[in-house]
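Chapter summary example: a protein plus manganese (II) ion.
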Amino acid sequence: MFSKETYVNRRAELKKRVGSGMLLFLGNDDCGCNYADNTYPYRQDSTFLYYFGLPFAGLSAVIDIDNDREIIFGDELTIDHIVWMGTQPTLHEKAHSVGVDTVLPSAELADMLEKARKEGRNIHYLPTYRAEHVLKLWKLLDVKPGAEQPSIDFIRGVVDMRNHKTPEEIEEIEKACNVTADMHIAAIRAVRPGMNEYEVAAVIEGVAASNNCSLSFPTICTVNGQTLHNHYHGNVIKPGDMVLIDAGAERPSGYAGDMSSTICADRTFTPRQKSIYDIQVASHLAAVDMLAPGVPFVDVYERSAAVICAGLKDLGIMKGDPLEAVKAGAHAMFFPCGLGHMMGLDVHDMENLGEVWVGYGGKPKSTQFGRKSLRLARPLEEGFVLTIEPGVYFIPELIDLWKGEGLFTDFIDYRELDKWRDFGGIRNEEDYLITSDGARRLGKKIPLTTEEVEALR
Ligand code: GLY
Ligand code: MN
């Protein structure tokens, strides 16, 4: 948690940005995993954390902009809670620590909102992403499930603030990135043929745990790197394999790190592996080189994709003009995802508020295969924190589909591509802060080139 002033100032700024009405913040509750008392690890809603700092279940809050009131709704612990969970500061004490003086029992939230609705007040709420939020909006505001109409003014106010990281946030993110880097370095040292993927995942997650961090998302640790979000850890690593790791730490404050690396199972990469790996690195470096305020991230994406096309053209897998291939969408055979995303209190920061607002400034997204997965396209601004993670993937099902449909035959040599169909996938990922005149990598460096990986093997 930051100082009281941080939360007071953030709320004051949000009030200015939204202007009028009441802002409703629904915190997250505990959620039973296999029975009610055996819960998933608790995670507070990130927007609630950003404005109210309190990582506890069972809270809601209202900012009444028109009457300049800030209220936290929740219930003090009973003796039963204290018997099972131990002594804790009271809710009033917790609220004071973030500069909120008014605490009311949860039951009073419904009354307050009903009165406000009768008075015709504008009650702003954010998009839902948990069933409990949907049910609460139904109960509190009579908004039927599926009929939610989140407030665009509220979304924009939150997004514009959270997209610009302050020095104290950057310090937290950098700490998460340093632990994340150690997770990857440990994995790069650990991988050996004969190990199970889950043993490498355990090494990675052990580094997070021993640094008092949790995971910012479920660990990807796979010999099938062509599957973008592969959470299966049951394969044995064989000689000649590559292991793709995508893993990150989350600090107790909630701030995330997110990095990827691709490791040879043997001491060194084969020449065939290196030929694709070098294309990924060239694409990665081309993207990093462009990072600066004012540069549309969609241009960075197109450049990184064109570098991949040019590299694959040198290998005979693609043909034609690389930039034209990207404009047409042919690159998505090998790079069917985005180049990167905002990162902060969420690993994909504020994805629950809508990518169009976070990554596109309200402009519509493309629907083209590949490009539609670009989470960030808008011009970069100082204070943005984002990931750079181009990849080169050979997805047999996609190859068969496009070949069968005769797609992009001007740009893809399917006969040559067939020789690579079982290659797998390569991704490396780093985290960057946009500065006043460029960008700065966050966290210590993890190996990027084949030589750097091999030096740790
Ligand atoms: N780290 C997973 C992702 O960025 O999608
Ligand atoms: Mn990522």
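Key point: The pocket of glycine (ligand 1) is lined by residues 217, 246, 258, 341, 347 (CB under 6 Å).
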